[in-house]
Amino acid sequence: MPKGLIRAVGALLTALALYSLLGFLILPGIALRIANQQLANYATVPSRIERIELNPFSLELTLWGLKIGEPGKEQVGFERLYANLQIDSLWTRALHLADVQLDKPKTELLFDKSGQLNLAQLFKLPPSEPTPDDPDAKPFPLRIDSIKLAGGNLHFQDLRPSEPIEFLYDELDFELKNLSTLPDDNADMTLVAAGPEGGQIDWKGNFSLVPITSEGTLKVTDGKMKAWWPYVRDALPLVLEDGVLNFSTDYKFSLAKETELNLTNTAASIAPFAIKAPDGRPLARLERLDVSETTVDLAKQQVIVGKIRSNKLETWAAREADGQLDWQKLFASQPSKPAKTPEPTAADAPSAQPAAPSKPWQVLLKDVQLRNYQVHLADRQAKPAVALELGPLNVDVQNFDSLNQSPFALKVDTGLGKQGKIQATGEVNLNPVSAKLKVNTQDIDLRVAQAYISPFIRLELRSGMLGSNLDVNLKSTEPLALQVTGRAQVDQLHTLDTLKTRDFLKWQRLVLEGLNYQHGQSLSIDKVNLLQPYARFMINEDRTTNIDDLLIPQPADSGSKSAAKPAASNDKPLG
């Protein structure tokens, strides 16, 4: 073999050995030392990397054992980070990584009571020099064929709410293919996150960095509402007893020109759900709520809900002795945040132009069905207190428009008390308030009115059942324009004079045909049928009657009477 060739082969082997020594041993050792020095200089907590490996021939780099935080209480770390650099990066003018793998990453995401984030306190970085904005600046060219995150662990804790929020995702897997900062390149991504408390997250779609766009599907399965309820609890005084959420949607998101977000095929269900007041009183229990066929358009500020199905809601409401609703008092008791003091402006500053009213959101409810509701009503202002059971209550709503561009169809079918029934169907508009309804009632027990007549007359309602077939036409509420027409009847009315314990007024049936009542204007009845009537009417020696004896004197209120007289003088008597 020629000596020149031998020397060339020897030089090549020597260079190869030196390159191997440099790549396998020297460079990883130097890189590890520099990396740990930089971590020690800038980290505020113990931080280190255990090992760095480099294959100079395949251009594979592996970092082992990053740990940032006190031993045993690491806040950020991973077991292994692997990256494979491609040689074509030299001529494609873009950093090209074939594969990036991150094994068992761990992150502690912690907010203290003052709102400080732990991750922001891990490093003391020198202030960066401001750089001028360049509209023509382009992002660093980068292409990554595959990114895989396996066995991730995310611990979240927020001490800011009145009740700390804490949850854990200990099974976090993420995969991203064909990520690029080159224009109009899309990456396919898959995210699966699950934890011991439930609430698995599945996210599939594509993602682009230039411009930032994304399209795909998002799904949450068996999400426990207790995990984030303290955020709601600090805004509303509602204590969550139970709540499980399922959610899924297709989405499109873009920041190409302005923020665009579209949700389609959105569906959500809550089953079960229960809340109570801070003092332990039950407020509402729901067996199931399903919302489906829903779309959300951020640009149009529009929400279209195709279907709402809800079953077996049980709720409680009461009017307290002071006349306020218990729900009203509950929300009024919530402390409000102090308003921010406006900053002083210069005296010579021009007056600001009033801001243009923002466009309201439009909510369209196409088809709503509420079934087997039960409402427990109580009036504690009455003496004795009145309890009223409403249910099973079924409500249908169709084509509801929050902007009141057209009336919506309403159908109500409910029981009242032990045997009463109420049915109402028709059209309703909310702004301005108007309604055209057909209202049918059957076997409404009039004894519920006893507590309201007892303060005025010594009379006992022993029995009485109300039924009706009415057309209700409400044209406005201010001023009240109301017309009621139809038929009404009262069966088995029996009243007792409690002063002398004897019958006062009773009949078997009273039927009013052709009823026509126009509020503030007229009342007419075409026909009155009265079956087996009885009335006790007596004139005493002093020319008073037994009716006078039954009336209970009311406390004088000269102020209210004097104020009422002028108003009453302007009222037109019914024709």
| Strand composition percent | over 45%
Q: What overall form do the CA principal axes indicate?
A: elongated
Unreliable stretches: 558-569
Number of helices, where a helix is a run of at least 4 consecutive DSSP H or I residues? 7
Structural class: mainly beta
Give helix % range: 10-25%
Provide a brief overview of the structure.
The protein has 575 residues and is mainly beta. The chain has helices at residues 3-42, 89-92, 229-235, 326-332, 450-453, 546-550, 558-570, and strands at residues 47-55, 60-70, 73-85, 95-103, 106-111, 142-158, 165-180, 187-194, 200-208, 213-224, 239-254, 260-276, 282-297, 302-319, 362-379, 386-401, 408-416, 420-430, 433-445, 459-477, 480-497, 502-518, 522-524, 527-531, 534-535. The N and C termini lie far apart (132 Å).
Descriptive overview:
The protein is mainly beta and 575 residues long. 14% of the residues lie in helices and 54% in strands. The chain has a 25-stranded mixed β-sheet that branches.
Question: Strands, helices and their partners?
Answer:
Elements: H1 3-42, E1 47-55, E2 60-70, E3 73-85, H2 89-92, E4 95-103, E5 106-111, E6 142-158, E7 165-180, E8 187-194, E9 200-208, E10 213-224, H3 229-235, E11 239-254, E12 260-276, E13 282-297, E14 302-319, H4 326-332, E15 362-379, E16 386-401, E17 408-416, E18 420-430, E19 433-445, H5 450-453, E20 459-477, E21 480-497, E22 502-518, E23 522-524, E24 527-531, E25 534-535, H6 546-550, H7 558-570
Parallel strand pairs: 4-6, 5-6, 14-15
Antiparallel strand pairs: 1-2, 2-3, 3-4, 3-5, 6-7, 7-8, 8-9, 9-10, 10-11, 11-12, 12-13, 13-14, 15-16, 16-17, 17-18, 18-19, 19-20, 20-21, 21-22, 22-23, 22-24, 22-25
